[in-house]
Amino acid sequence: MIAQRPAPSAADLLAWYDRHARRLPWRVGPAERRAGIVADPYRVWLSEIMLQQTTVAAVKDYFETFTRRWPTVAALAAAPDEDVMKAWAGLGYYARARNLKRCAETVAFSLDGRFPSDEAGLLALPGIGAYTAAAVAAIAFGRPAAVVDGNVERVVTRIAAIATPLPAAKAAVRAFVETLVPGDRPGEFAEAMMDLGATICTPKRPACGLCPWNGSCAAREAGTQEAFPVKAAKAERPVRRGAAFVAVRPDGAVLVRKRPDKGLLGGMTEFPTSAWTTDDGAPPPRRGRKPKTAAPVVAPAGRASPIADASAAAPFPAGWRRMMAPVEHTFTHFHLVLEVYRAEVPASTPAGDGWWSQPSEIDGEALPSVFRKVLAAAGR
DNA sequence: TACTCGTGGAG
DNA sequence: TCTCCAAGAGT
């Protein structure tokens, strides 16, 4: 008779966590906890929004900047949208910043400055989904919520050898976690699960020898750790092409404008660009109403005369000159190749629907990474 | 359910 | 170099 694997225990994981917890700026450390300090829901919420699909390393500086500048949800709610977008620039997924601001306003102005303490109340707020609602409820309010993120999915699909591909397996993962969540220290339990996934139960070459649950893991017993989680096949990444235009005044100011609030890089700042083509040369599908006349599209360099096409897509006639190397940038679901054009223009050139940004101001603009590459490619 | 939505670091 | 992917949410 072969001994059955014991069920994983929250107590074992918490004992491991007591020894190996990562010290992170948004966490209440053990010493503080002993001193009776509890988590600040604002800081927990802010960190969880920033950490959505984003690494701890990338978040740290932004978290420090935000909490120093806006120490409370009321302060964030009172800030101009534009300042928040500028502070978020470079972190990606800009809908998070828009929802962050809306959520802060709701909490500050409609909820008396207090975050809801239960999952349902949190879930109703903009930018807060199943994961974040559970995480804030558990970490900030001590609720025994089942916190399921990518780390937890990996840990649990291995422990229980769940072969159903994600995201279909999500319900089974959540059900499993619900059987484990302790009534005591549920927030630390959630942090422990995530730390375990981040440091021990890693995607490649997990350190099973160091895992507090290695005796309970079905995948490890079978030697198939790296086969989990099973994921649905991903779609291929198409290539889109376009042109970006950097107009430079004699004083060094460059012309920028604000992108539409919705969609890709919504609400952020950009250099004027042509429409971006899809693989087959057609313009990308539009969500809104079709314009009566199609926007001029720049053909890929080499296929037609880049200069001639660029002049049609440029924001205004000028001595546009194409930079040698195009900017390439990979988004989640497509790869972008942007030809960069630059022109020296007179001081009297009107800004149109945009504005002129001085060299001393450009770094502070809400300029996404792809357009910072454009700026660099234009030699600014 | 299946897309859309960024970025930069690790392997 | 290139693929994967990191504390997901909205539609």
UniProtKB/TrEMBL annotation:
One of its GO terms (biological process) is base-excision repair. The keyword Translocase does not apply. Keywords: 4Fe-4S, DNA damage, DNA repair, Glycosidase, Hydrolase, Iron, Iron-sulfur, Metal-binding. It comes from the Bacteria. InterPro entries: A/G_AdeGlyc_MutY, DNA_glycosylase, Endonuclease-III-like_CS2, Endonuclease3_FeS-loop_motif, Endouclease-III_FeS-bd_BS, HhH-GPD_domain, HhH_base_excis_C, MIG/MutY. Residues 50-199 form the HhH-GPD domain. NCBIfam families: mutY. This is Adenine DNA glycosylase. It comes from Pseudoxanthobacter soli DSM 19599. The lineage of its organism: Bacteria, Pseudomonadati, Pseudomonadota, Alphaproteobacteria, Hyphomicrobiales.
